[in-house]
Write a sequence for this structure.
């Protein structure tokens, strides 16, 4: 199984709350925790409670879950939910209308 960048992949039979050894300190184990995630969007501070992250039990290094980051970026993207095509413009002049 492939891990997140900068982390060692966990074996398939390992407990689901452990991600692997910490590459920062080399001795700690990364374990799943749910933290409050903070990020800036333009000039506003956004906080997301219960955000999944893998935290080293020795040095505290955090590796955020890649799927959760992708999901959050999709939610915060101003283009999310907008139509991919621009609406048609209707002409108000009668020059291009068919004559009876």
């Amino acid at each position: 199984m492939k891990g997140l960048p900068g982390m060692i992949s966990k074996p398939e039979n390992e407990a689901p709350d452990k991600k692997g050894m910490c590459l920062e300190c080399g001795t700690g184990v990364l374990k799943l925790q749910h933290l409050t995630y903070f990020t800036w969007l333009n000039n506003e501070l956004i906080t997301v409670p219960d955000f999944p992250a893998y935290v080293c039990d020795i040095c505290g290094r955090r590796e955020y879950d890649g799927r959760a980051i992708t999901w959050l970026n999709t939610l915060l993207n101003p283009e999310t939910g907008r139509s991919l095509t621009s609406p048609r413009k209707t002409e108000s002049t009668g020059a291009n209308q068919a004559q009876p």
